[in-house]
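Re: your question about Energy-converting hydrogenase B, subunit P

S., sorry for the slow reply, the queue was backed up all week. Below is exactly what I fed in.
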Amino acid sequence: MQPKHMVSLGGYIVETQFPYRNLIVINKTSEPIKIEIPVFDESWIEEHRELGLEVIPVSKEDNYLKMWKRAHAELDKIRN
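Result:
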């Protein structure tokens, strides 16, 4: 994952019992970080947070677009 970028992993969640419908992943660092996809279980979240990524789980009740825009605005502050 490129520095100062974010991605949405909703299409890469392959476990049907996964508690979230999407994950927003943000690399706020100045270094590229390799992420493992697809996502199979919840341990993926903590493993990637330990790499320095911000991982925002999106549940069925959450407003994905609002969460994406908020995260993007925070990332823009860092970029500038």
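The radius of gyration is 12 Å. The mean pLDDT is 94.

Happy to talk it through on Thursday.
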